[in-house]
Every structure is written in C-alpha cells, then in structure tokens.
Design brief:
- The chain folds into two domains: 36 residues, no CATH class; 30 residues, no CATH class.
- It is built from one helix and four strands.
- Helices cover 11% and strands 14% of the residues.
- It is an alpha/beta fold.
- It is elongated, with a radius of gyration of 17 Å.
- The longest helix is centred in the middle third of the chain and has 8 residues.
Length: 72
C-alpha cells in the first residue's frame, strides 16, 4: 500500500534508481535534493531579457525566458 509502483509506472521513467529501497511513495521526497545535486549541472540554456540575477547552482532549461528583475 502506497508503494511507488502504485503511483508511477517505473518502467517508463529515466530515474528509476531514485525509487530504490522505497516502500512508501513519500519516502522519495527527502532523496530528491541530493539526487538532483549529483545529476544536474548548473547552466543557462534559456533566454535572458535584461539583466536578471541568476545564482550559481541553477539549471535553466531550453525555451525558458528569464526577464529583468528576476532573482533566482
């Protein structure tokens, strides 16, 4: 009951290892920050309008527009 496979089709996701050793779906939540830190490389692949402030540990995906006045 409440297992990840009851909520997520683990055969169709790229990050199945995130769910290893998890009995309840909510046990994944505290694992997400470390998982992302290990796998994502900060970078800006979007479009900046003006001069928004972007922190150093931020990943901005392709097609994203960041406008002046943004603080992230």
């Amino acid at each position: 009951m409440f297992g990840p496979d009851e909520y997520v089709d683990l055969t169709h996701i790229d990050h199945q290892e995130l769910f290893d050793g998890v009995d309840h779906i909510w046990e994944v939540l505290p694992k997400i920050p470390a998982y992302l830190r290990f796998r994502l490389n900060p970078g800006n692949h979007g479009e900046m309008i003006g001069y928004p402030f972007i922190g150093e540990n931020v990943f901005i995906g392709k097609g994203t527009i960041i406008e002046h006045g943004h603080y992230g």
